[in-house]
Amino acid sequence: MSLYEQLVSRDAARKRRRHITFSILAALAVIILAATGYVAFVAVQANNNVRRSNALSGVAGVPKLTKDTNILVMGLDSRVDEQGKPLSAALYDALDAGDQSIGGYNANVLMLIHIPANGQKATAISIPRDDYVQVEGIPGQSFEAKIKEAYGYGLAAEQNALLAAGKPNNDATYQQARDAGRQAELATVSAFLGSVHIDHFVEVTMAGFYEVAQAVAPITVCVNKATQDTYSGADFTAGMQQIDGKQAMAFVRQRRDTTDPSYEFSDLDRERRQQAFIASLLHQLKQAGTFTNIPKMESVLNSVSKNIVVDSGLNLIELIQQAGAITSGNISFTTLPITGFGTSPSGESINTVDVASVQATVQELLAPASAAPASAPATSASPTSGDTAPAPTAAATATPGSAPSSYSDWTGALQGGSIPCVK
User: Fold this and answer.
1) Which residue of 67, 70, 327, 394 could cross-link 412, Cys pair, CB 3.0 to 4.6 Å?
2) Which of the listed CATH numbers 3.40.462.10, 3.30.360.10, 3.40.630.190, 3.40.50.2000 matches domain 10-422?
């Protein structure tokens, strides 16, 4: 029914970045909710209330070649709302991620949602935030950086130019700079994926996820092994369990186990957690008939509306007609391959990538050459620099009506339609 859906040594960076942006989950929840006709009138209200941006109009030269829809979800690590204002004290306490003085404008979560026009299986492609790529969309500038940083660099360049030109440092200037940041991120992602046409985008903040999770809790999730993490607050037993909004945040934030050093996590495992959370939420809401619960859907939409920005052309009513595969669980989640972990010229920890391999993977996901088995794992390219990437050992067990599908790491495709067990 709606689309709810921010630079140092590796240790220091981990501490600053450990508060994962949960916005992607709120945005996916909006897409999920937008796909049910029972609450169309709520979508109309949300369609009129969300903040709009013209940033997509500045991403030129990428033609639309099919009737399929591509939506880029961007989650910022900013601890402010879409107007740049601080959140409430209660929200800061619930987020456990510091206040407005922490975080910036990194797009810490990037996911491309591909919705085929023919109603076939939807695809969600997670783009690792530390992939080192060519930044696009900033006039007069050409450089490489982590893909998540394109937004912040674009925003800063525009804001500096406006102030240098004598423009006042006010909300109008701030919003213009935010649009420039969005444009840079959209252009960078599109180019990195192989000149992929982006039809729409959704940008959400940290607060959006928490409020959505609170509105739909309790949420059932599954983990392969009991695990604890004092950084994120994660404390989970093995197997299925129900969690509340704050525990949901810990579930998608966890990137280490502080009780068992041998149980290694990474940002890529955390992305798998995000994918699993979305799949679990979809399955739960469908099974419980929550999509037809008007008051609960209104509560979710009202919570997210102040933490979301969408492109000026996005129409939630039309999306209702396109996203049926998502609510039915007919969606798969894949994380793009990396070649390893390395260090940038400035000393930052990065993911090294083979651009040609990434683009070939994207092409196959968006336009499969043949009907390959849905659960076939996508292998990552051989590492070429820095530490080696995790070996692609994921194996999904998916026997209908038996134990939940289990994924031992972040590789391969996670299938929707059930509650998966993950690391």
Assistant:
1) 394
2) 3.40.630.190
